[in-house]
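Question: what's this shape?

___
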Amino acid sequence: MIFWVILFSILGSVGAIIIAFGFLSIKKRSQKGLVSCLVSFAIGTLLAAASLGMIPTAIINSGNQIQLVMSFFLGGILFFFILEKLVIWRHCHEDSCEVTESAAGPIILIGDAFHNFVDGIVIAASFLLDPFVGIVVSISVIAHEIPQEIGDLAILIDKDYTKKKAFIYNTLSGLSTIPAAIIGYFILDILSLAIPYVLAISASSFIYIALSDLTPELHKKVGFKYSLRQITLILAGIGIMILIFLWKSLI
């Protein structure tokens, strides 16, 4: 089990950064359209992973303590809202945005390291409860990390970092996922009673990211063509998650 936790932690952090770095070599006009597609797909995977996988699994493994699990879920949403207000956690997918325009490169890297650390805990907690939920959660992490890392790299380069330095520093901040996953795996394995509630808080982070950070990005483009593409890709993300759960029920 630890092998899969580490593998998906690497794919969700360093793997996403490598893909994002390669993405920056594409023409800027094409980048914007592709980022919009990635964001739409990521929204679908995050919403489905949280609502169809993480929350139900947390409730079942808590002994059906529905109100307690949902209290942690609600608390998690408030917690991440406060963090974003403090400019510790920010997902921005453009070269400039209200928060990051005044933020220095180190702040972006610290925020990214914290976010990746949380992703590592999320991956560990999900695999400990159910390997299939772990896979679903990991796919969702990778899906939303790619557009986030594209934005982070673009911002660092805009702040006069060379492409090489931006890649190295962003990779170092992304590496926090791996030790967080390993530590989380062993600590949560010992404190097994806490896993459902950690997963509930993790689900709240997925919902918060999808609705607070990613969805507003899609509203920047209006028109039937854009809306249809966005809805189709969101449904595709949800569909992928459903297929994984159906696969689980068949084996």
In short: Confidence is low (pLDDT under 50) at residues 99-104. DSSP finds nine helices and no strands in the chain. The longest helix spans residues 28-61.
